[in-house]
Design brief:
The chain has 186 residues and is mainly α. It is built from 7 helices and 2 strands. Strands 1-2 form a two-stranded antiparallel ribbon. It is globular, with a radius of gyration of 18 Å. The two termini are 22 Å apart.
Length: 186
């Protein structure tokens, strides 16, 4: 079993950031925005994350539990700020709020999200190679691919215009999955 305490904070961030980036890129990969599509894809990703909390591999389970704990801590901090808005006043808080507003208002960038996910995945796999048992590395990589595959396959995509047929994976989704698989393979 690989223990996450053996990694620095920066290394742990790399390991924990990759699954979220993979999920985000998979939701954007087909370039077809839509509320229902987003909900279905996000729900598929959430199921994979929940399954990982009971994964047979201890490392994947530890990573998914650490992700869950990280999300809960962020939610608790946000709730605290909502309860006491004065606590969020300051230059750093104002800069963070401005950055968040710019990010939220920006158009989705499927190619940029895919690039970031592939980059983070490759960095995490490189970091883990030689530091964790091969079985843990393989399980982590397979989990990242499962997240992307389930999210990308959660809805059918149109291959062309309005009257075109629907396919399980669009060309862009398949290209993203192929790039991600190459990053996992190292």
């Amino acid at each position: 079993m690989t223990n996450l305490t053996g990694f620095s904070e920066t290394e742990l961030d790399q390991i924990l950031d990759a699954p979220g980036a993979v999920l985000k890129a998979a939701t954007l990969a087909d370039g077809q925005p839509g509320g229902l599509r987003f909900l279905l894809e996000t729900a598929a990703g959430a199921r994979v994350f929940r399954e990982a909390q009971e994964h047979e591999n201890d490392f994947v389970r530890a990573v998914s539990v650490a992700l869950r704990d990280r999300v809960r801590a962020k939610e608790a901090a946000a709730a605290e700020v909502r309860a006491d808005p004065a606590a969020a006043v300051g230059v750093a808080a104002a800069a963070a709020a401005t950055e968040e507003a710019a990010r939220v208002g920006a158009q989705p960038d499927p190619e940029g999200a895919a690039d970031q996910a592939v980059e983070l995945t490759a960095a995490a796999v490189t970091l883990l190679r030689g530091r964790v048992p091969d079985a843990d590395l393989a399980a982590y990589g397979e989990w990242l691919l499962r997240i992307a595959g389930r999210v990308a396959g959660a809805t059918r995509s149109r291959t062309g215009g309005l009257f075109s047929k629907r396919v399980k994976l669009s060309v862009d989704e398949q290209a993203y999955l192929d790039r991600l698989a190459a990053a996992v393979a190292g």
